[in-house]
Amino acid sequence: MEHITLLLGIVIITALVFDFTNGFHDTANAMATTISTGALKPKTAVAMSAVLNLVGAFMSVEVAKTISKGLVNEEGIQPEVIFAALVGAILWNLVTWLVGLPSSSSHALMGGLIGAAVASAGLGAVNGSVVVTKVLIPAVAAPIVAGVAAMLAARLTYKLGGKVGGKTSTKGYRAGQIASAGLVSLAHGTNDAQKTMGIITLALVAGGALESGANPPVWVIVSAGMAIATGTYLGGWRIIRTMGSGLTDLQPQQGFAAQTSAASVILASSSLGFSLSTTHACSGAVMGAGLGRKGGVVRWSTATRMFIAWGLTLPAAALVGAGAEMVMRTGNIGVAAVVVFLVASCAAIWFISRRQVVDHHNVTEPAPAAAEAPGVVTTAMAAVTVPPIAAAGTTAAVTDEDLKATIPAAAPAPAAPAAAV
Question: Membrane-crossing residues (predicted)?
Fold first, then answer.
């Protein structure tokens, strides 16, 4: 193994922590629809996804090359810059996980890296053309392409399966969902695990442990694959709930269409070296599949919150990364302060999350955002509901409030005529 200093070791460990958060943050991309439609039990789904994420990590290093060789200029980049970038990415991942929003771990990482690099060496440290062609354009195109493909695929599946019995069709598409979910997990490992490989390789180059332009060493590939697989197995249940029931209600046919479309987009981008957001692709596919069924709807209130999080990911992570880099300029004290801040923030977010636990026991319950506000008709009907009638031999517990809500107020009695004198 290459000669690694203490600071470089801290950077590598932090990168693997980010990879771990990436795993549980993005589990929903592969398994949310499979769990929500009942194709697989929650724990079985995340275990399967974890294994395939690990396998996918060994399939390619093209995306890792984009991160380590193309996004920022290696000259002048120090390990402190990489550490600052990871701080911004980890905190954004945890904040969005806490509120159950499927944001992009990839963009959080790249935003932190861009912000820290600019704070350290100026705008010239970032390759603008790479950011535009391999980050920003795929960020916009991926959800649109995946969404349109999923919508068309969903309509096609309903059309082709119209003559097949309902139970037979559902059973077949659930089996197809399992296969397509495995493909998404494989694609996720191929794309997202490589980002951590790239960031560790960049840190090794910055710290002088590797020559400029080197590919990720084998131990980097193995450790990154293991970290993302472990995070995936633990499951990001909050985001799984949002993706599975918060955006739309999916049937097995739609789930199959969404996952197949997302996997195709992710694998194609990985082969081209695009640092694609798997979250964008999968979320776009889920929304497209939701519109692909006649009568299907997308809950745009949840989608709007998600879009806002997408737009904030790059700048928010960049600001935190830049701030962390400036603090670390003070030397070892600054590095220690950033480490303490990161650990304390992670602990605080974890304790806050314990107030309302979401895990494999309640992940299939509807997300709070999925509940629509009652309409005028529903409200009016509730206002005139007749109080419940007591069963024979029992007494109905009717309160004054029940009576007020269901029985109109009596009209005032007419005044008695005055007595004649």
Answer: 6-24, 45-61, 81-101, 108-130, 136-158, 307-327, 333-352
